Each structure stands twice: as structure tokens, then as C-alpha cells.
Amino acid sequence: MDIRTAQYQDYERIAHLHATSWKTYYRDILGQEYLEQEVDEDRQLIWQTRLTNPPFNQHVLLVEDDHELLGFICLFGNHDFEKGTIIESLHITPTHRGQGLGKLLIQNSLPWVKQFFPMSGVYLEVMEKNHQAVDFYDHIGGSHHFDRDWRSPCGNIIHEWVYTWESPDELAKAIDEPMSA
């Protein structure tokens, strides 16, 4: 298994995994028409744009096995003045979920956060109805302090929970602890 920084030529594979993940896990959250007709093109455009000329505060890691994309994580350093660095995306192929790859990607992204944004907290936003993700972030010690509404690409207003960690070190410590059942 290899973990590496995403390059421009990876955008189609990342977009495909992102769209597949949304189609699989957000069926009852995002609009059906969007998921059936628009999500693939939308994610292609997003990832091509992100990887064409990435901003200095963007970091995208891939986990692969024999060149097969198994998952990715995307962070934006110091994205929010108060909350810090955002884990903007974390997606694992449906066939590889539950194997620790999300945890592995977070662990491997934290050295970048510590190097470039050491005084920054870490946070993420997760759809309230994305129960698997909520459970995962609860298990890795995220503090759920904030809620927000997100206007999704399909136009739906979706309630999200915001999980925070005071620092990359706090998240590193939490993710290294064994997950309880």
C-alpha cells in the first residue's frame, strides 16, 4: 500500500471516487437528480480545478494498492481563522471502508499540518445524516461544538456538524488511541 501526494493526472480518478462515494452514501441526503445526472461532471470540474494550480494551503493525499485508488484526503490549511485547518474531503472506496484507511490518511496528512500550520486547530464538517462518518469522528475524539447549514451543489440545505480538534497534535493523539466499539 502506498500513500502519496496527488498530482494533476490523478484528478479523474479522485473525481470518480468522490462521485461514487456521494452516490453510494448520500442517496438520502443529496438530490436524486443531481446524483444521477450531475455529480460526475461536477466532481470532475472540482478536482481538475483543484489540481491544475493548487493553492499553497491545499494538501491532497492518495492511498493506493498496486496503482488502484483506495481513498483520498483533502485539507486546506488555516482555512478558518478560528477553527484552523479543514479536512475538506475524506473518501474511501466502498470495498475498502472499515479497514483503517481513513485513519491512515489522517495520520499521514498531519505532518503537513504540523509543518505549515502548527498553531492551527483542525476541523471538519460532516452531514448530520452521514451516520458512518459521524460515528468515525466521534470515535477519534472530535469535539462537536458547532452546527451549520450547507447549501449543497444540488441546492438542498443540509445540516452539518462541525468537529474540531484544538491542534494537529490533539488529533494525532486521538487517532492513535484504539477505537472503541
From TrEMBL:
Its EC number is 2.3.-.-. InterPro entries: Acyl_CoA_acyltransferase, GNAT_dom, MshD_Acetyltransferase. Pfam families: Acetyltransf_1. One of its GO terms (molecular function) is acyltransferase activity. Keywords: Acyltransferase, Transferase. This is GNAT family N-acetyltransferase. Transmembrane segments: none annotated. It comes from the Bacteria. It comes from Vibrio zhugei. Gene3D superfamilies: 3.40.630.30. Residues 1-176 form the N-acetyltransferase domain. The keyword Acyltransferase applies.
